[in-house]
Amino acid sequence: MAVPTQPIVLDPTGVRAHEEHRALRAHGQAVRVDILGVTAWSVADPALLKELLTSPSVSKDARAHWPEYGETIQRWPLALWVAVENMFTAYGADHRRLRRMVAPAFSARRIAALKENIDDVVTGILDRLDALPPGESVDLREQLAYPLPIAVISRLMGVPAEQQDAFRRVVDGVFDTTLTAEQSEANTKALYEALHLLIASKRAEPGDDMTSLLITSRDEDEEGGLSEDELRDTLLLMISAGYETTVNVIDQAITQLLTHPDQLALLRSGEVDWSEAVEETLRFEPAVRHLPLRFAVTDIPLSDGQTIAKGEAILASYAAANRHPDWHGESADDFDVTRTVKEHLAFGHGVHFCLGAPLARLEISTALSLLFERFPQLELAVPADELKPLGSLLSNGHQSLPVRLKPASDR
Question: Which residues on neighbouring strands pair with residue 33, listed in sequence order?
Fold first, then answer.
């Protein structure tokens, strides 16, 4: 197998994503890629990726384990992904401390308590959509996929209604890989301003929400709690991860079901549970294609003769790994809700596995089941090949998802 003499340059627009994923898989266990000017080892081999995601030889702490951090942070559009101070970038004991403080927000009790709220939010959205004239085109990404997770994470975190639009705009920018370094820096500044406003409002008027609990922990236990930067960046992680990824999976699930009517029929008939559609979507089109970055704490020799050297960056290429034929056979590129093994890495693996996975699954399955029950004649309003991907090599969704809820002859 030939090793490329130059890193594979990943397209920041995401237009050639599936072609790139095939190329990554074709180059074996790992291959060097250029991600917006930074060289990293892309790992698309699922066995190796799972091994690295659980190995103490791999860290997410760029400050401690990436020699290029100081220089790169000044120019890289994705600097925020490695510069934040929360459990996303923590390693070892620091990671365990930060995760322990956040975990109560996603306890089984809290998730169960949100179920009725999720049902109500989806029903309210569908009621508004049901009032639209038959035959009218509506963007379900904008009208369903966005408002549901924003409403849920805002309730969980206590984000006031008047601050939600500001958070949406700046979080979208975090995932946009077409921004210049200057634009990204401006977006980060606006993002932190929004976070400081939220913290100030909750310090002034605490509520029964996770933001208030984290602030209380920070203010009353400075030694064992969160630093001010950790508080701010933990809120950033919970709010951004709590809705952007769920938006994409709702978007992709609707798209796949409308373009695979045989699969949709199985779900509507009750032969297959909606949770199976959620898992297959997470495998087939995960919310995040690549997740930057991890770093080799020591030299890591690979079985194919290559070595990821100490200090080199590692890119977890989840989407490419999810469709690897070594994992899911010759049908890996098929969308199949009846697939017996739907294992995937959409929520990560190991100690950094997404705490919000149960909440995301609940939101997505509720949205799908109620949507297709309410609108049995739902169809795309444009050919599937005209759906445009987001301007991102990270975030995996569409710019819009135009559909017709009912044919024009309905009334």
Answer: 8, 40
For the CA atoms of 141, 143, 148, 153, the dihedral, rounded to the nearest 10 degrees, stands at 80
Q: How far is 376 from 180, CA to CA, in rounded Å? A: 43
Rg (CA), the chain: 21
Q: Grade residue 227 by pLDDT with cuts at 50, 70 and 90.
A: confident
Which residue is associated with the tokens 């135009």?
402
Distance CA 132, CA 138 (A): 9
Measured torsion, CA atoms of residues 279, 280, 286, 291, in degrees rounded to the nearest 10? 70
CA proximity to 36, closest of 172, 174, 179, 185: 179
Residue among 374, 386, 382 nearest 410 (CA) = 374
Residue 258 and residue 252 in contact, taking contact as beta carbons nearer than 8 Å? no
pTM above 0.70, yes or no: yes
Query: Two tokens at 152?
Result: 């849920």
Q: Which of 36, 38, 30, 33 is nearest to 13 (CA)?
A: 36
β-pair partners for 404: 137, 379
Summarize pLDDT for 261-319 with one digit per residue, the tens. Answer: 999 999 999 999 999 999 999 999 999 999 999 999 999 999 999 999 999 999 999 99
d(C-alpha 242, C-alpha 20), whole Å: 27
pLDDT of residue 218: 76
Angle between helices 147-157 and 228-259 (to 10 degrees): 150
